[in-house]
Amino acid sequence: MTDGTVGIGTERRPGVVTRKVSGRDVDVVVIGAGQAGLSAGHHLQRAGFAPETGYVLLDGGAGPGGAWRDRWPTLRLAGVHGIHDLPGRALGEPDPGRPAAEVVAEYFGAYEREFDLPVHRPVNVTEVRDRADGRLTVRTDAGEWTARALINATGTWRHPFWPYYPGQWSFAGRQLHTADYRGPAEFTGRRVVVVGGGTSAVQLLDEIAGVAEATRWVTRRPPVFDDAEFSEDRGRAAVARVDATVRAGRPPSSVVSATGLVWTPQTRRMDAAGLLRRLPMFARITPEGVVWPDGSSFDADVIFWCTGFRAVLDHLAPLRLRSPGGGILMDGTRVVTDDRVHLIGYGPSASTVGANRAGRDAVREIRRLLGGSPVTLR
Fold first, then answer.
1. Distance from the Cα of residue 189 to its chain's centroid
2. For the whole model, what pTM was predicted?
3. What's the distance, Cα to Cα, between the start and end of the chain in Å?
4. What is the pLDDT of residues 283-334, one digit of tens each?
5. Cα(30)–Cα(28) distance, rounded to whole angstroms?
């Protein structure tokens, strides 16, 4: 391009010079079509990138909704922290008693259709590699794309974290993770150890306790409940802590974990019922259950690991982005060691409102990288 603008497909738009491309050669590949990916797609479109030639979104799901479509059926819309509106279309006021998975899948699907976003699914990205010409090869189970820049919006849901404890694989009962949960009915009459100190662990402990024979709640650190309601200031402070972590090249904790636990009518009821009597982590697992350092034990049928998730980034391994600290050194959404690559829904942007802002910021920087004139994105 000779005039320093982004070339995108065959349609002319103000301030944009188009270029011809063939096959699957695009300016920007977005991996993932959840909140972060759809936000990025919207801002790419508004910045003048044409669908299919200027940008595409590759999503591994069977349909719209991102990770929300895999949430357990008993998670009602009223029980989530909040779903921030996607840019350009409000969620509205759906029935708070409906399953969150259904509401969000419908919302995201309508959004894709309204803005005619080029989402390809189901497409699973296996790896991203450098090309000799400075572009990137995005390899998938549906073929290859080449791109000048990449926005990774794969989130964490498909990478559940399972900590290891001695004797773990000797346990005769069932072990499952939050990602496997489909409702409390399967815990009926069971003796259950719930492991984890986050909001999901508390919510699921409440559901399970209603049908289980007995429960024990176990966390690594004593949980701290805050009397203050969740606020924007509190959210910004949590995001700032996670942002400082990724700017130092360390693996991020989740924004949700950084916000902590809050006293609500639900948690006060649980506390009054004795459900929040937290125990420290056990020392080992036996075929029959768990044993603490002092020798006390609990016979269990199920160990339920509500231990969070890690970023889905294995497909980026060929690019060697990780720093000596084990994380990826970031400046906003941009990977410091490779300015073609932006991570959104990662670290400080791993929240619905954060993902929206990250999508906008990533597109602004990519347009600048590719030689485009500045545009105002809101």
1. 33
2. 0.84
3. 27
4. 999 999 999 999 999 999 999 999 999 999 999 999 999 988 788 988 889 9
5. 6
